[in-house]
């Protein structure tokens, strides 16, 4: 029996809706846990994430994805066989290793920030999907995701994850952000006397959505100009072509 195993590779996230018997997978996403650019520094809840227009990732093949989906489906099957069918959202964190995808953890929820990559792409009625989950039958519900890429970058207080500079005012020009085509989501902020103040956690997420990762990344950066303030930090490297290419090369070398 394996108690502990070190796994090396690239992490990716697969989220799925489960009606207790079958799962409906969502587009793959890659989160960035490290605080600083170049995947340096301490671990955080996630500084940003991206997804690709083909719903895979540039370093994940169709067969890798199928293996990850099969692991999640067999988990759902095992729970049902034990009389505990799981209805809800299943979050699977995988490491893509030289031997294919390995499960790191499951969560009974959406990922944060990964939810913000997939939900804006959901073309079906979310309430209808939830109805299918709750009634234990998703088979007759439509669950379609738009073929678009997304790049999400979190605006966080300086020191986030260690000693955040909380209580700092930030300015969010929501109209400007929307005009750029991106989505803006407030996270952990307080509103006081008409001002938006940071807390110790992530403040605002900006999500670019376009036909390719490159275009979504550029859109996200344009929208980020509409969020300003002192003592805030963003990992601008997330979703950049050269950063993703390094991941592709790394996985290529691992597979050899
Ligand atoms: N993005 C990591 C998590 O939601 O657990």
Characterization of this structure:
The mean pLDDT is 97. The protein has helices spanning 62-81, 114-118, 126-135, 174-179, 213-224, 241-255, and strands spanning 10-19, 23-25, 30-31, 34-36, 40-43, 48-51, 87-97, 100-107, 149-157, 169-172, 183-186, 189-192, 195-198, 204-210, 227-229, 232-233. The chain is built from six helices and 16 strands. With 256 residues, the protein is α+β, with helices and mostly antiparallel strands. Helices cover 27% and strands 32% of the residues. The strands form four sheets. Strands 3, 6, 9, 11, 14 and 16 form a six-stranded antiparallel beta sheet that branches. A four-stranded antiparallel beta sheet has the order 2-1-7-8, sandwiched between helices. The chain has a four-stranded antiparallel beta sheet with strand order 12-13-10-15, with no helix packed on it. The two termini are 27 Å apart. A hairpin with a 3-residue loop joins strand 1 and strand 2 (23-25). It has one domain: 2-Layer Sandwich (D-amino Acid Aminotransferase, Chain A, domain 1). Glycine is lined by residues 31, 46, 107, 111-112, 114.
